[in-house]
Amino acid sequence: MGSCVNSSRGFSEVLLPxxxxxxxxxxxxxxxxxxxxxxxxxxxxxxxxxxFTRRTAGTYIPATNPFLRxxxxxxxxxxxxxxxxxxxxxxxxxxxxVDMGGILENFGQRTRQEDPVVHFYETFLGAYNAALRKSxxxxxxxxxxxxxxxxxxxxxxxxxxxxxLGLADNAKxxxxxxxxxxILDPATGTGxxxxxxxxxxxxxxxxxxxxxxxxxxxxxxxxxxLFGFELLxxxxxxxxxxxxxxxQELGYRFKGKQRLGVYxxxxxxxxxxxxxxxxxxxxxxxxxxxxxxKRDVPVMVVLGNPxxxxxxxxxxxxxxxxxxxxxxxxxxxxNRAPFTFTY
Length: 343
Fold this sequence. Notes:
48% helix, four-stranded parallel sheet, globular, 4% strand
């Protein structure tokens, strides 16, 4: 299991320094499972493709998720961890018999309580490991709450910032020449808030009679200003799956090596990363691309709910220094312990 130990070391170097080998193995298994599910979705959409096997699965991971593609090309297709081949093969066989078209036929047509994609992580984790769910703060935000927050942000942009298309507005700042409405969910989970943002943007364009321009709009004015950061690999994989499916359902077709702006990264860490371990290099590339966004993108809209955990094991000197001023009121410390910034 040397490859798995090295992968754990690479992951801890870049994202979660205190993660134990057992916790990493669990996270790794979840990611392989959800990655295979995403591959099976891609396989179902590619009518007449090759037979779905462990060795062909990586070819069906969407190019919109380069990290997951690199992971599968290295681990699943090349026997890098031969000890788990039997488990992967069993899962592949199970997925190959699933009626994926039936599972996804109502995707995007109902509220997310009825959409099966929303249950692929939060509901599963609650049954599988409730303690892990609590410690990582993985809780589904109800659809009406998400909708209210997103619609409120959209209204504020239109009425207070003179941006007539709200979240869909692509007006550029006269100084930076970058779009004013840059959007970030810093704890995106499975993409619930970004999903609602895309839905709102499409609705705004529809009201303006611009829905027929959706394909060019997404390519030129949406993908480059919609971002999400996520720390956990499995929920990151599901966010990519869900948002990719949504954009396709609305009529967009990804081109070439376009990626979604959802990154596997520690939101509370600014530093550029490097690793000598192959798996760590994949994670570091994601984290470094996200670091460039943190440094260079003038984010205007930060929305979403942070994970519901009172005290997180995720610490970072960078973020703690940034929030130090908030520990004081008029230069004086409050009469209670300062709030612990959590992710």
